[in-house]
Design goal:
mainly alpha, elongated
Length: 62
């Protein structure tokens, strides 16, 4: 039976001191993987009417 040493999830698992390896393994299998965001999906989608550098200069001059 394989029990991972680390679980990369944003979840807390409460164990009792008397938990067996089988109970721990079943709890770890219930852990859902963290959702990932594909940022490449949104790359270049924003339509900006102004040059970004010009906009930054305007903000910093005020």
């Amino acid at each position: 039976m394989y029990i991972p040493k680390t679980v990369s999830a944003a979840m807390t698992i409460k164990l009792s001191k008397k938990a067996t390896k089988d109970e721990i393994a079943s709890l770890l299998q219930k852990v859902k993987p963290a959702k990932t965001l594909d940022v490449q999906k949104y790359a270049g989608k924003l339509k900006w009417g102004q040059d970004a550098l010009t906009y930054q200069r305007e903000l910093r001059n005020d």
